[in-house]
Amino acid sequence: MSPFWHHPEQSPAPLVRGQSDNRWSIGAIVAVQDSQNANTEALEALTGGCNAPLFQLSSGKHTDVHRLLAGIDARYISLHFELKGASSQSLWTQLEAWAQAHNLDGTELRGSIAAPPSPILTAALLENWPQVRSLSVDARPWLDPARSPVEELARCLQQAVDLLSSMETSGLSLTQLNKQLFFRLAIGPRYFLDLAKLRALRILWANVLAAYQLPEASLPPIHAYVALDTRASMETNMIRSGTQAMAAAIGGADLILVPPASSDPEKTSFTQRIARNVQHLLQMEAKFDWVVDPAAGSYFLEKLTDELCERAWSRFVELQ
Asked: What is 16-319's CATH topology?
């Protein structure tokens, strides 16, 4: 990378955002060990300003969806589920029954289900809950703070293309599959690189859609997970979470998840509140959600985004 950027090096700003503002959802991770306790934690998060709880469901643990979602009005928030070995079919069956019991219109419900690809689940969501996505592309394992995000972006594209190819045999069109896709990326300590990484991913995926002859297709949402250093102190992580969440916000993430700065059970409530308040400050004080693509026009960030796109695309072609 050149240490100096000036106006002639800046290319025209590409489409890096698929909506008319920079509003993102404030997430909170809820690990479900017991449905009742998880419900209490989720309600506390929602009361504290979260509007996109993410429920992590593990194998071997029975989850009572009716108890888990008791008192939660899904019409005004988005619901997200991450299945770590749990059955997606069992979850979908319970979600359908829960929605019917509360007279909820499936077309109004929003969220995601991160689970192994299931043509049955994807087809059911497209028909009944079209705003809930089930095809997750998880690039978090490729985060390497010691290297540039080129490999991370290339592997993300490769995983997404392979996922679409494997799902095409189910009889669903590429347009339908793209509507079910969402990306999950980790945000590390490299402020500018991680910011540009999110912008670059949208451009790269737009190129993939163009190659599929789907130039008008919508861009999938990006879920940004702030990756804190478990070896650092609670105070250090609270500071880092602010800059990392800011990188995700300026980069255009659709959902940001900031974990608690400490895993100490005695400090859980406090650190969870601070994790939510980091995003409240970015929205309510800094107003980052008011500006479409806040990084646009910065010679440095535009150049950095372009270089990441070029190098990641070359690496993606090599992998293919």
From this structure: TIM Barrel (3.20.20)
